[in-house]
Amino acid sequence: MFNFTLGSGRANADISQVFDVVVIGGGPGGLSAAMYAGRYSLKTLLIEKKVVCGGQMATISSIENYPGLDKPVSGSHLAGEMESQAVKMDVKILHGQVTSVNFADEIKELNTPKGLIRARTVIICTGAQPRMLDVPGEKEHMSKGVSYCATCDGHLYLDKTIAVVGGGNTALEETVTLSKFAKKIFLIHRREEFRADKLIRNKVKAVPKIEFLHNATVRKIDFSHESNKHILVSVKGEERTLDVDGIFIFVGIEPHSGIFGDTLKLKYGFIVTDEEMGTNVEGVFAAGDIRSKNLRQIATAVGDGAIAAFSAAKYLAD
Amino acid sequence: MLLNEEVRGQLKERFRDLKDDVKLVIFTKKDDCRHCGDNQKLMEEIADLSGKISVEVFDIQADKEQVDKYGIDKVPATAVVGREDYGIRLYGMPTGYDFVSLIESIHLVSTGETQFTDEENKYLKGLKKDAHLQVFVSPGCPHCPAATIVAHQMARVSGKVRSDMIDSSQFPQLASKYKVSGVPHTVINETSSQLGAVPAPVIIKKINESAG
To answer: CB-CB: which of B142, B179, B181 is closest to A50?
Structure first.
């Protein structure tokens, strides 16, 4: 009935040692890479900047498309399972942010507020964050009506009218979640057809409280006045004002690659790797959403993580 | 049992680091409190996992003296008390990611370990006016434990700071009163607020401003 997320808690890793593998980022790619590295008996440290692991997965209300799940589970649940599986393989977890890296020598160096961390190999799994719409009013009203997390904020819109922006799997899945709270939802998508899988499209279409606005883009968000919260939307070239109490935005992701820009080859901000997850620097690998690739799913992230750990093990053995 | 065998095992391991004894002072209500019974059960199960953790139970209507002593105004409520009462409270039954905050709070009051710099500690210890932090959270919010932990750590360091974690899904009217439309959302001294999980200096600056 109740879900109790525990997380890895206080890290007790001895960071004075040189690790065989340091994984940066505790989303599904990072947890998979760390778990596999642990299974190869490599001294492995995972660094997660948040108090809890899971990355973007932790904000998903219901995961249905990950193999092996007979019934949908929450992202927080799956993150907890992946984390404890990694910890069982003797993976150490440190909560802190990597502020800069030096990949010039054989022993790689990572700076964190908790001290300098040294590693023979590094697997970058820093993932991404939700992309902003970049329209007037969005930044000013972030967390004041503008949200990127249905599982965090959905309950605050009980019996209210909201807008959801996006047309991919995440947008439509989260619209279904939000329909449990909101009395009416405008689903705004810039194209004629949704990009989401047919299964999810059909699910959304079956919810009567959702009004679909195709070929529509949000022009402005104005939640300045409590009694007159609204957004301006262009629908097929015509402007419409929608009175909504909140807006949830799911229009893609932005990579977390800022600290690697000078060292690693990037494409649109994503790290370029070969098929074995190797970057342009020997001993440095990347996995999950941070990689330049076409399909970003939990399933592809964990696959990347497994390959990256295998490649790291091979690099260390050679 | 609310906690499964695996979580119980992990908690036992986690509680080995505890130093000072911790008392979970729970406030309940006989009727009209959906999660009071389960909250009490949860805290009792946690206390069973370490000899350093104990539970005291009071009723918000019957135990007026204790209600005043701990400054409780809604239930379910849990005061996490160490060698002394540091003003750390959890309102609502802590599930999901709020459970992380509960376990971290137990560690915090017991060990006193924080991530603050000497300068931040100095400012907090030198506070002249009272500061009341109300951190609105939700069980599904992975960003929320960071906000709660910073506020609770501030209360642990300074006798002038009180820190409440409030589950916005269990106290929707309170969330509505403070116009909470996204979590984490920290209300500072009723006069200002901070959105998102931010480092201590940001909260300290707002306390400073609100203290005039």
So the answer is: B142
Residue B89 sits in the same domain as residue B156? no
Alpha-carbon torsion angle B28, B58, B167, B8, nearest 10: -100
Based on its alpha-carbon atoms, the radius of gyration of chain B, rounded to whole angstroms, reads 16
Is residue A149 annotated as a catalytic residue, yes or no?
A: yes
| Chain A contact residues (CB < 8 Å to B) | 2-7, 9-10, 50-52, 54, 58-59, 61, 74, 76, 84, 113, 142-147, 149, 151-158, 226, 245-246
Radius of gyration of chain A (CA): 21
Last residue of a domain, one of B73, B91, B111: B111
Name the domain boundary from B89, B111, B133: B111
* Residue A125 designated active-site: no
Q: Is residue B11 domain-shared with residue B98, that is, in the same domain?
A: yes
Which of B6, B11, B41, B100 is the best residue to mutate to test the A interface, defined by the most A CB atoms within 10 Å of its own CB? B100
Ordered domains of chain A (ranges, CATH)? 18-129+253-317 (3.50.50.60), 132-249 (3.50.50.60)
Query: Residues A40, A41, A46, A51: is their CA dihedral positive or negative?
Result: positive
Show the domain range for B82. 5-111
Q: Which two tokens stand for residue B189?
A: 């001294």
Total-model pTM: 0.90
How far apart are alpha carbons A19 and A34 in whole angstroms? 12
Convert the pLDDT of each residue in A164-213 to its tens digit: 999 999 999 999 999 999 999 999 999 999 999 999 999 999 999 999 99
Strand A238-243: give its sheet, edge to edge. Answer: A216-222, A230-235, A238-243
Cβ-Cβ contacts under 8 Å between A and B: the total is 113
Query: Between chains, do B138 and A155 touch, taking CB under 8 Å as contact?
Result: yes
Domain co-membership, B157 together with B106: no
Query: Domain tally for chain B?
Result: 2
pLDDT in tens, B27-37: 999 888 999 99
Give the one of B6, B14, B180 whose C-beta lies nearest to A9's C-beta: B14
Burial pattern B66-95, b for ≥16 Cβ within 10 A else e, equals: bbeebebebbbbbbbbbeebbbbbbbbbbb
**Partner residue opposite A10 with nearest CB, options B2, B17, B182:** B17
- pLDDT tens digits, A45-97: 999 999 899 999 999 988 989 999 999 999 998 999 999 899 999 999 998 89
**Which residues fall within 8 angstroms of residue A232, CB to CB, at 6 or more apart?**
A218, A219, A220, A221, A222, A239, A240, A241
